[in-house]
Design goal:
This protein is mainly beta and about 600 residues long. Among the domains are: about 25-175, Cupredoxins -  blue copper proteins (Immunoglobulin-like), CATH 2.60.40; about 230-405 and about 415-440 and about 530-540 and about 550-605, Methylamine Dehydrogenase, Chain H, CATH 2.130.10.10. Strand 9 (about 110-115) and strand 10 form a beta hairpin. Helix 1 (about 155-170) crosses helix 2 (about 200-210). It is globular, with a radius of gyration of 23 Å. It starts with a strand and ends with a helix. Mean pLDDT is about 95; it is low at about 1-25.
Length: about 600
C-alpha cells in the first residue's frame, strides 16, 4: 500500500515494507559476474557507457558488494574518474584519479549509491548501486557524501535532486525539447530503493518532489532587438559527416531566428565548448573540450579556416585587448604552464604561460590586456597573472580543496574579480590590487539541503558568471537548481556583492554572456546543457542601474528552421547542449573600443564607453 509522509514541508510518497519487491527489483538487472565496465566516451549522455540501457540511461549499473568497477578510455581527450557521490564512510572513498585516457579499477564493498564523474567535464556521470542481497529495496545508503565533504541523508532534497540530475543528464530522452509540443517527461527506473527513512518507490518520490509531464513554456522573442548576433555552442547536437557531436549556432539579434549551424565535418569538430572572436569580429575561435584542438572559422560564411593543436581538453578562449593574441586554457593539462598563448588570428601557438597551477577552466582578461585571472579546478584556488612582468601576482584560495573553482568574471576596471566554485556553490570575491579575498557569497544560504525549503535566491552548482560591461550586475548560471542568480556589483552600496534576484532556468543551466541591446543597455544570454532554448535576461529593465528587477524577456529556440544555413544535416539532439555563448559584437570594456566603425555605429555612446 502507498502511504504519504509530510517531511520538511513537502510530500514524500513511500511504499509499505510489506509491498516492496525483493532484490530482483523490476526495471533493473544485476551486473553480470559482479563486474561493471564503464567506457568513457565523447558521446552526449553516454559519457560513462556500460553498453546496456536501463530506463533510457546507459550509465547505471546494479550489482552486489565486492564489485570490480573498470574504467576504460574511448575519448579523444583525458578524463578523471572521480567519486562525486558515495555512501558516507564507504571503504576506499573518496576515489579520484589524475587525468588520463587509459584505464582504472576500483572495488566497491559498501552497499549504497556511487556516482562517478570527470573533474574536467563535471556533467559526465556514471552510477553504481551496490545492493545488499539481504535487504529489501535497492540500497542507496543512509546518507551520502560529496567529494567536497558535504554529507546529507539519502532521503534529503539535495540527495534526490542530485539523483534526478543524473537521470536527466545521462538520457537525451529526458532533455527539455522546445521543438516539440509533447509535455516534458523524465523517465526513472520503476524501482524501490532503501534510504534512511525506509523503502520508497524512486519515481514516486522524484515525481512528488519535482513534478513530471510538464507542459513547456512557449518560446517568445524579446520585444527590443539586440545588436548583432548571438553564437551558442550547441555542444550535444549531432550531424551528418561526423562521428563526434557539436555545432555552433548563430541567432540573429534582429529577429531572433537561427541563421546558421556550423558543424565543421571536415575536421570532425568535437564538442565545441566556448568561443571568442578577433577584434574585427570576422573570425570565431572555438575550443573543442573533448579533444585537443582550437577550431577557427569565418563568422560570415561558416567556412573552416584552421584547426590548431593547443593541448588536452581546451575549455575557454579569450583575446588580449592590446595585442589581439589569444589565450586558451587547457582544462585537462596538469602542467603549471597550462595556458596557451596564440598569435593573432590563431596562426600558431607562441608560448605556454605558467600560472603556477594546472587544469584552469574559464579565465578572464582585463580591459587593458595586462592581467589574466584563472580558476584552477583541481587545487581549489585562483591565479592572477601580469602580462607586463610575465609573472604571477597571486595565487589565492577560492574554495575547499574539492570545491571545483570553474569560472571567473571581472569588473570592467579590473578592480576585483569573482570565482564561481561549482561544488561549494559559492562565489569568491577578490581584490585585484591588494590580492586579498574580500568575501565569499554563499549561493545556497537560502536553501535547506535536507527539506528542500527555499527562503530566498538560490543557486546550486554555479558555472559561468560574467560581470556586465558597465560593472553593475553579474549574472550566474546555476546548473543543479536550474536557476539564474543576479548579483549587484555596483561599488559602495549595502547591496554590493549580494544576490538580489533569482530567475528560473532550464536543466543544466550553464553559459552566460552579455551583449548590446538596441538603443542602449544590455542583454545577458543564458544557455542550458539539457534543453534547446536560450534565455534572454534584461539585467536592468527600467534603466535605473539597479539589477534587483532583472527579468527574463525572451525565450529563443536553438534548433534549425527552414531558413537556417548549415554545413551538415542535423541528425540528433536538435539544438541541445547549450554551453559557451559569444555575442557579436563583443561589448565588454577594452574590447568594445577596438571595434570597427561599422559595429561601433550601432552602439550608443554609453555602450561604446561602458566603464565611464
Amino acid at each position: 500500500m502507498f502511504t504519504t509522509l509530510l517531511k520538511g514541508g513537502r510530500f514524500v510518497t513511500c511504499l509499505s515494507i510489506a509491498a516492496v519487491a525483493t532484490l530482483a527489483a523490476p526495471g533493473l538487472s544485476q551486473a553480470s559476474g559482479n563486474e561493471v565496465n564503464f567506457s568513457l566516451t565523447d558521446t552526449p549522455g553516454r559519457w560513462f557507457d556500460t553498453g546496456a540501457t536501463i530506463a533510457g540511461t546507459r550509465s547505471l549499473a546494479v550489482t552486489a558488494p565486492g564489485v570490480r568497477v573498470n574504467f576504460s578510455g574511448n575519448s579523444n581527450t583525458v578524463h578523471t574518474r572521480t567519486s562525486l557521490i558515495y555512501p558516507t564512510g564507504a571503504a576506499g572513498m573518496p576515489f579520484n584519479t589524475s587525468p588520463k585516457k587509459g584505464g582504472d579499477t576500483i572495488t566497491l564493498t559498501t552497499p549504497g549509491l556511487y556516482v562517478f564523474t570527470c573533474s574536467i567535464h563535471p556533467y559526465m556521470f556514471g552510477a553504481v548501486i551496490v545492493d545488499d542481497p539481504k535487504t529489501t529495496g535497492l540500497d542507496l545508503g543512509n546518507s551520502i557524501s560529496l567529494i567536497n565533504g558535504i554529507t546529507v541523508p539519502s532521503s534529503s532534497d539535495l540527495a534526490t535532486r542530485l539523483l534526478r540530475t543524473f537521470f536527466i543528464a545521462t538520457n537525451p530522452g529526458n532533455w527539455q525539447n522546445y521543438a516539440s509540443s509533447v509535455p516534458w517527461h523524465v523517465t526513472y527506473p520503476n524501482v524501490d530503493v532503501r534510504v534512511d527513512i525506509g523503502v520508497v518507490n524512486l519515481p514516486a518520490v522524484l515525481d512528488a518532489r519535482y513534478g513530471n509531464d510538464v507542459t513547456l513554456e512557449l518560446l517568445r522573442n524579446p520585444i527590443v532587438p539586440a545588436v548583432g548576433e548571438i553564437w551558442v555552442a550547441t555542444q550535444f547536437e549531432t550531424t551528418s559527416g561526423k562521428s563526434k557531436p557539436g555545432t555552433i549556432t548563430a541567432v540573429s539579434g534582429a529577429n531572433w531566428q537561427v541563421t546558421r549551424k556550423v558543424a565543421l565535418p571536415s575536421i570532425n569538430m568535437n564538442n565545441p565548448h566556448n568561443m571568442w572572436t578577433d577584434r574585427n569580429q570576422n573570425i570565431i575561435y572555438a575550443t573543442q573540450w573533448f579533444d585537443s584542438k582550437l577550431a577557427v572559422f569565418d563568422r560570415q560564411t561558416g567556412m573552416f579556416i584552421r584547426n590548431v593543436s593547443v593541448g588536452e581538453a581546451p575549455a575557454h578562449v579569450m583575446t588580449r585587448t592590446d595585442t589581439d593574441q589569444l589565450h586558451v586554457t587547457n582544462n585537462g593539462d596538469t602542467r603549471t604552464d597550462s595556458v596557451m598563448e596564440l598569435a593573432p588570428l590563431a596562426t600558431g601557438v607562441e608560448r605556454r604561460i605558467d600560472i603556477g597551477r594546472g587544469n584552469a577552466h574559464a579565465h578572464w582578461m582585463s580591459h587593458d590586456g595586462k592581467k589574466m585571472v584563472t580558476p584552477n579546478v583541481f587545487t581549489g584556488d585562483t591565479t592572477q597573472y601580469n602580462f607586463s612582468s610575465n609573472s604571477i601576482e597571486s595565487i589565492l584560495p577560492a574554495s575547499s580543496p574539492f570545491g571545483h573553482p570553474l569560472a571567473t568574471g571581472m569588473m570592467p576596471d579590473a578592480s576585483k574579480y569573482y570565482v564561481a566554485n561549482l561544488l561549494d556553490s559559492t562565489m569568491t570575491v577578490i581584490n585585484m590590487n591588494t590580492h586579498t579575498v574580500i568575501k565569499s557569497i554563499n549561493l545556497i544560504a537560502n536553501y535547506n539541503p535536507v527539506t528542500g525549503a527555499i527562503s530566498g535566491p538560490v543557486g546550486a552548482l554555479p558555472i559561468q558568471t560574467p560581470v556586465s560591461p558597465n560593472g553593475k550586475s553579474m549574472v550566474t548560471a546555476n546548473t543543479l537548481t536550474g536557476t539564474i542568480t543576479v548579483v549587484d556589483t555596483r561599488p559602495g552600496l549595502t547591496t554590493t556583492d549580494t544576490v538580489v534576484a533569482m530567475l528560473a532556468c532550464d536543466p543544466g543551466c550553464h553559459g552566460v554572456q552579455y551583449g548590446a541591446k538596441q538603443g542602449g543597455g544590455y542583454y545577458a544570454y543564458v544557455s542550458s546543457k539539457f534543453s534547446n532554448r536560450m534565455l534572454v535576461v534584461d539585467p536592468d529593465p527600467n534603466g535605473d542601474g539597479n539589477p534587483s528587477d532583472a527579468s527574463i524577456v525572451g525565450k529563443v529556440g536553438l534548433f534549425a528552421s527552414g531558413g537556417t544555413q548549415s554545413d551538415a544535416t542535423i541528425s540528433g539532439n536538435r539544438g541541445m547542449g547549450g554551453q559557451g555563448i559569444l555575442p557579436i559584437p563583443v561589448v565588454y570594456n577594452g574590447w568594445v573600443q577596438n571595434l570597427p566603425a561599422s559595429w561601433k555605429s550601432q552602439l550608443t555612446a554609453a555602450q561604446q564607453n561602458p566603464a565611464q
